[in-house]
Amino acid sequence: MKPFNTAVIFAGGKSSRMGSDKALLPFGGYSSLSQYQYEKLQKMFNAVYISAKHDKFDFLPPLIEDRYEQSSPLVGLLSIFETIDENEVFILSVDAPMVEKETIEKLYETASSCHDADAIIAQSPQGIEPLCGIYRRSIIPLANEFLELNNHKLVALLDESKSVYHLFGSNEPFLNLNHPSEYEQAKELLSSKRLF
To answer: How far is CA 101 from CA 26, 112, 156, 177, in A?
Structure first.
């Protein structure tokens, strides 16, 4: 058995600032960032899924397609719990490839003593990282209310739910690849360290 149960990689973003779909950019010796993240998390989780609007991948991961017309992480979150029968899932954005094993382990350590929390989320010095954390099914009623109000901001959802934040001392693990320069930076960082 692997240490943790279920992880979902969010790979449905529009990537407008990157100029091309960042989920499909080559990374870490794999044909895409999506496959890199998938293979990395497979070493820790019994099941790994990818959340996206549609199947756009050149490998065959288990896919959770959005069940709503809107495009947002909130829609992805709702679709996950409507598709798979799990009480909690670890969620990671496809464009955060520097998140290490130790980061995930610390989040689960925090979760083990926060049984009534709806979510256990990473917080870096630069702020809350809503797409690096453990979400529980108990957050779904509130998430549905947010959808009805057309409020798709995960940070706002977390603010109103029973969420716990684990503060990390560095921004580096949470480098998001939004621009080509950040993509190049992540490739350089990866070449200097072994994450898994």
So the answer is: 21, 17, 27, 19
